[in-house]
Structure formats: structure tokens, C-alpha cells
Design a protein that fits this description.
Length: 413
Amino acid sequence: MRLVKNSILLKGIVLFLCFVMVQSGFQLQALETDHNEELNTLVNKFKNSEYDIVIEKLEQLLNEIGEDQGQIRGKFFLLLGASYEKKGIKDKAVENYLLGDLLLDSPAIEGIDLKSLEVFNNTIYGKVINGKRVFEKVGKRKRKKRFPYLAILGAAALVTAVFILMKKKSGEEPANLKEQYARSVFDQIEWIEIPAGEFLMGDNRGLGSSDESPAHLVYLDSYKISKYEITYDQFSDFAYVNPFNRTYHEGRGDNYPVTGVDHENASQFCLWLGTYTNTSINLPTEAQWEKAARGTDNRIYPWGNAAPGCSIVNYNNCNNGSNRIDQFTQDRSYYGVMHMGGNVSEMIRDSYAADYYSVSPYSNPTGPTYGDSNIKVLRGANWSSSDPRATKRSSEVWYRRNNTIGFRIVLID
């Protein structure tokens, strides 16, 4: 008799879940119809160059619609990015293009030729070969469904099975895979707190090249920086839930810094990690990197003023390759950040300009807004270079990938 009662109860639960699924589907389809009409209206305003109106309305809509409406949110993000690009606000354009790209199988909006927009191309497809742009997807995306009917039916079946087996834990829900992996990676990262305050940025000893001058005072708000470079193992978790169609590892082990990735890949890693942990994560600015390396005592090298050698730092082909993040413990900066002298050169958020120090603002500089934005700053020596000074600057095009370049990240509370 108890089995019969349980069977009736379980059938009732399944029928109720199916009813909720169908009702939710009808409601979501009605909402999507309304939002598609709003999208068409905003596309027309975009074509009429009413970019401020489009931006204001999209910001409002994206705060109102739920995350289950992934398709329309993705198109809204793309249109918002295009509007910011037309306004000349590149950072906002890139941010919204990436968010739209994460939500859509194909980043496109009917009625707008997004591929005619330079920042869109650089963000989503950008690859330059011999001076010509080649359109090539950077990675594969998980296919998004308009409404997860099969997922809900599967959930109903799972609820039934769990009730029968009496193993269900109260209130437990399946974890979002991307969030699960992001939180796992976040928990692995050891952060070093860099306090707010001034430091002297640039070469004040006459040891460097002209692009390291003039030395100048810089004030930075407090931030946290990862103690170690991002590892292959951590990046592979990101790539597992955001699949890449190419190799990004140069043959070293899991606990080695990831190499073979470009500036866009590193930025996407930051966006993924910050989005799913509800934190603000990015590549460091050049000023943030140098302060974490040099501190406030104007030292020559991250570890101090002692001359470099293969017992201190992995540089000048000491190892003929990168080393594990727990080796070369003497390559430790003023604040205790590791491997800022050698191992791999590190990607920086800023664009590069040789004369930037002469015009850099005092407070929280973020790099030049002039010059070629495709050329990015690199900081720190690598295993094959010979100058591990803390003020040494170098640069590289954003799409360059090789086994001497990696990255670390910063967290703003």
C-alpha cells in the first residue's frame, strides 16, 4: 500500500513539473517575442546613429531580463558593444562583444553588418597574417537552446529517481559547470594584497632604455595580484568549459605557467573567472605590475639589488624553458609575488607607447589612448631573455603566442 501511495505521489510530481515546464515555455516565448520587437526598434535607431538612446535602453533591458533568455541577451550585448564602438568607447565595446559571444552560437544581429566594425573583428575574429585579416573563430561554443525542455524533462526524471532511491539531499541543485570550474580555479589562486599608495615608476638609475623614462611618481588604489603565473592546469579548466580549437600548451606540466595563449585568450580567462565568481578580475595594468614587482624601495630587480644568476632567477636560458611555479623561490618581489624577474614574460592590459611615461597620469594610469592599440605591453624577463630588471619594458602584438609569454591576474575588491 505504501508503494502505491508513493507511486501516485511521484506521478503527481512529474505531471506538475511538466505543467510548469509548458507554462514557463509559453511565458518565455511571449517575452522573447516582445524583446525581439524591441531589438528591431533599437537596430533601426542604431542605423540612424542614435547611439546614446540605444545604449541607455539596452542597459535598462539587460538589467530587467533574466539569464534564461540567453539568445536575446546575447544579441543585446552585441548591439550594445556596437553602439559603444560607434561612440569610440573601445573597452566597453570589447566587454559587451565578449559577453554576447559567450551566449550565442553565431555572434550576429540581423540588419547590422558587425564584421564591418573594427573592434568587433579584433575581439571576435581577429587574426592578422602578413598584414591581411583572416576571419577565423577563436574557439568553439556550447550550443544554446531557446528553452531547455529536455533539461527540465531530465530534471523531472532525476527527481523521480532520487525520490525512489531516497537519496535526495534537501535543496540540492545540479551545479552550473562553468561556475563550478571557475570557483575551483579561483579557490586555487593565492592572492597578494598590494596596499594603496605612491611608488616611483620607471628607471631612476640610468640602466634602461628611453621608454623606461622619465621616472615618475604614481598613486595606485589597493588591489590583489596572483602570487604565481596562471598555470596550464588552471587554464585547461577554463578551456574545458570554453573549448578552444587549437593547442595552447608548449609541452610543460600542469604546474607550469600556461603559454601559447594570446592577449585575447588571457582577457577571456579573466572575464570568465570574474563573471562566475562575481568578482572584478583583469590583467594587471603596467603600473600595477611594476608596483607589485618593485615595491616602494626603488630596487633594481624584483628580489632586490643583488646581481641576477641562475640560482636566483630563470632567465638567460638557465633552464632552456619555463619552470614550475614553485621553483626559483629567490625570485620573490618586494611584496612576495613570485617569478616577476624571469620564467615567462607576462601580458599587461595596457597598450604600448614608447613615450607614455612622459604623459602618464599620476593616479591609477591605464596606458595610452593613442597609438596602435594592437601592440600590448609585456613585463618581466623570460627564460630566454637576459635583462630581469623590474623597470624593463617590452611589447608584442596582441595575437602573438609562444612559449615565452604567460600571464598573471589582478583582483579589485
